[in-house]
From TrEMBL:
It catalyses: L-aspartate + 2-oxoglutarate = oxaloacetate + L-glutamate. It comes from Serendipita vermifera MAFF 305830. It holds the Pfam family Aminotran_1_2. GO terms for cellular component: mitochondrion. Keywords: Aminotransferase, Pyridoxal phosphate, Transferase. This is Aspartate aminotransferase. NCBIfam families: PRK09257.1.
Length: 402
């Protein structure tokens, strides 16, 4: 018998599995609203002009040498500047330990490994319910115990379950870790207000929780990278030490290039150096050092004031197209089709996703009858909609809910 005869077949990935089903469908009407990758008005993948420009500037200057273990230092310092702000005191003092990572997922996984090895408090992380599906196995595989806090309760309006979130964090184990989506919460599209972030900071402080930020969508929520960095910057200002995961997949459209960063704020330069040394010890046996091309693109953009300004306006353009689709979809459902139910959440939610409230049975019907694919929790990637398919989508939803 084969050595692997006892290996059981695992379930398909709940998000990437949707793309598989979409690819297998041959209908010209098919729409993929599963994966969170930006699509332009023609439904096509979008390479940002600033990225193309950066690649032109890099052409011919690219060697294929190894990067250091923690990546391209031009990139990591510019990534930290983007996240923490150009005027960040921590940055000026050299107190941010930062490493390049294999996009946001890799940042989370390095973070998980670092906390598993060095966090002095309980190795327990509280994740919001719901959260990005991959958060759970990332921390579980890192050896961190996963617990949950309420964030959104289906059927109870379309807002944040603020009372539930605060209550659960107040009852959390003292000194544990808490994962916070910095902006554009995935999958709900609902973020705390700035006032609520201020209150959260107090709750986190009172329970000595460690705030672990996942910022996969800086710029995508509001169209403004500074505004979207409010939460981690505010927590730093309030004296919290934080962990921060960054991804350039969405905001630079560098999905397959795998460009990200993981950082920890420290008390002193000397502490930063110790933390850096341990990040290297974690990364070296995992993958030795990160890929170089995407980091060079991101660094080129962030380093050139003109190109950076162009990029910021392109991020804004993507965010605005999504916001426009939200209002078109809302209008069609509410005013044109008079679809039963309240659809105002489509407009009020932010970021790449909308949590539609469609049931698993309805999402299944949409796939089978209308060739429209989304995750079973009713999450749709708004970026998959455009003026050509939004009408068909709205009519199909209308049929599915009647
Ligand atoms: N965190 C969240 C909340 C996400 O939605 C994503 C992407 N779907 C990621 C992290 C990581 O994505 P990537 O590894 O492609 O940067």
């Amino acid at each position: 018998a084969s050595t692997w005869a006892g290996v059981p077949a695992g379930p398909p990935d709940p998000i990437l599995g949707v793309t598989e089903a979409f690819k297998a469908n041959t209908s010209p009407k098919k729409i993929n609203l599963g994966v969170g990758a930006y699509r332009d008005e023609a439904g096509k993948p979008y390479i940002l002009p600033s990225v193309k420009k950066a690649e032109e500037l890099l052409a011919g200057k690219n060697d294929k040498e190894y990067l250091p273990i923690t990546g391209l230092s031009d990139f990591t310092s510019l990534a930290a500047k983007l996240a923490y702000g150009a005027d960040s005191a921590l940055l000026k003092d050299g107190r941010i330990a930062v490493t390049q990572s294999i996009s946001g997922t890799g940042a989370l996984r390095i973070g998980g490994a670092f906390f598993e090895r060095h966090y002095p408090g309980p190795k327990v992380i509280y994740l919001p319910t719901p959260t990005w599906g991959n958060h759970i196995p990332i921390f579980r595989d890192s050896g961190i115990e996963v617990r949950r806090y309420r964030y959104f309760t289906p059927g109870e309006g379309v807002g944040l379950d603020w009372k539930g979130a605060v209550e659960d964090l107040k009852n959390a184990q003292e000194g544990a870790i808490v994962l916070l989506h910095a902006c554009a919460h995935n999958p709900t599209g609902i973020d705390p207000t700035q006032e609520q972030w201020k209150e959260l900071s107090e709750v986190v402080k009172s329970k000595k929780l460690f705030p672990f930020f996942d910022m996969a969508y800086q710029g995508f929520a509001s169209g403004d990278t500074t505004r979207d960095a409010f939460a981690p910057r505010y927590f730093v200002e309030q004296g919290h030490q934080i962990a921060l995961c960054q991804s350039f997949a969405k905001n630079m459209g560098l999905y397959g290039e795998r460009v990200g960063a993981f950082s920890l704020t420290t008390e002193s330069k000397e502490e930063k150096a110790r933390v850096d040394s341990q990040l290297k010890i974690i990364i070296r046996p995992l993958y030795s050092n990160p890929p170089v091309h995407g980091a060079r693109i991101a660094a080129t953009i962030l380093n050139d004031p003109k190109l950076n300004a162009q990029w910021e306006s392109e991020v804004k353009g993507m965010a605005e197209r999504i916001i426009e689709m939200r209002s078109v979809l809302y209008e069609k459902l509410t005013n044109e089709l008079k679809t039963p139910g309240d659809w105002s959440h489509i407009k009020s939610q932010i970021g790449m996703f909308s949590f539609t409230g469609l049931s698993p049975a309805q999402t299944k019907a949409l796939a089978e009858k209308a060739h429209i694919y989304m995750t079973a929790d009713g999450r749709i990637s708004m970026a998959g909609l455009n003026s050509h398919n939004v009408g068909y989508f709205a009519e199909s939803v209308d049929k599915a809910v009647r």
